[in-house]
């Protein structure tokens, strides 16, 4: 720790060149100063190592401006895109000569192409009716319905509120944020509008450009 001495303002000595000032420094301190001076350029040249995320940011830590300016723009381990989910199905026999094409990503879900989105808890106002199916919503990679359903299906498999949102949060984003216009994530003070929810869903499916 450097020592501080009080001085009369009128008796302060004039600033001395570094070479002269160093004469009054002990040999040990002088060697440390030299080592520091020699090491300075190396420190200046150092660049921060890139930080690679291994999980998706949860809503509580997501900001549109922040993700656009710092770090990867998209989730490092993203959800399937809607059209990928649409084609990722397994034919499962559920009765005599009766089959379901169930969505599959490693594991086979009970949700299938004919599942009604309303039966999953989604409000369909402006996006269909009570009979609208999951397959219908998975019609486009960038549609509102495609984005929410793709993330919902991934959440059914891997949602844990640690590395990916739980399906209940995805559902709330839709019903409160997209349909209702106001979704408030945990630990945030400003509610998300529909546009903010859609931006987050694009992040989860690695479609931020």
Describe the structure.
This protein is an alpha+beta fold and 209 residues long. Helix content is 37%, strand content 10%. It contains eight helices and three strands. The longest helix has 19 residues, at 27-45. Helix 7 (167-179) packs antiparallel against helix 8 (194-204). A hairpin with a 2-residue loop joins strand 1 (89-95) and strand 2 (98-105). The model is unreliable at 1-13, 15-25, 32-54 and 66-71 (pLDDT under 50). The chain starts with 17 loop residues before the first helix and ends in a 5-residue tail after the last helix.
Largest sheet: 3 strands, antiparallel
Q: Using only CA atoms, what is the Rg?
A: 29 Å
Number of helices: 8
Strand residue content = 5-15%
Using DSSP, what is the number of strands? 3
**Fraction of residues in helix:** 25-40%
What strand line-up does the widest sheet have? 1-2-3
Mean pLDDT: 78
Label the structural class. Answer: alpha+beta
CA-CA gap between termini:
50 Å
- The run of helices and strands is HHHHEEEHHHH
Q: Are there runs of 5+ residues with pLDDT below 50, and where? A: 1-13, 15-25, 32-54, 66-71
Question: Which of globular, elongated, flat, extended, rod-shaped describes the shape?
Answer: globular
Region (Disordered): 1-23
């Amino acid at each position: 720790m450097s020592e501080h001495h009080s001085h009369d303002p009128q008796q302060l000595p004039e600033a001395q060149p570094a070479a002269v000032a160093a004469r009054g420094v002990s040999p040990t301190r002088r060697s440390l100063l030299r080592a520091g001076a020699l090491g300075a350029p190396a420190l200046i040249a150092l660049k921060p190592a890139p930080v690679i995320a291994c999980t998706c940011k949860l809503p509580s830590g997501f900001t549109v401006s922040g993700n656009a300016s710092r770090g990867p723009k998209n989730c490092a381990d993203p959800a399937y895109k809607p059209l990928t989910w649409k084609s990722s199905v397994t034919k499962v026999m559920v009765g005599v000569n009766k089959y379901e094409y169930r969505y599959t990503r490693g594991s086979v879900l009970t949700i299938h192409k004919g599942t009604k989105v309303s039966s999953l808890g989604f409000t369909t106002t402006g996006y269909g009716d009570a009979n609208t199916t999951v397959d219908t919503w998975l019609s486009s990679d960038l549609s509102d319905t495609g984005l929410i359903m793709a993330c919902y299906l991934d959440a059914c498999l891997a949602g844990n509120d640690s590395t990916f949102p739980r399906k209940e949060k995805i559902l709330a984003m839709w019903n409160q944020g997209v349909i209702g216009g106001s979704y408030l994530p945990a630990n945030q003070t400003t509610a998300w509008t529909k546009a903010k929810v859609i931006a987050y869903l694009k992040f989860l499916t690695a479609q931020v450009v």
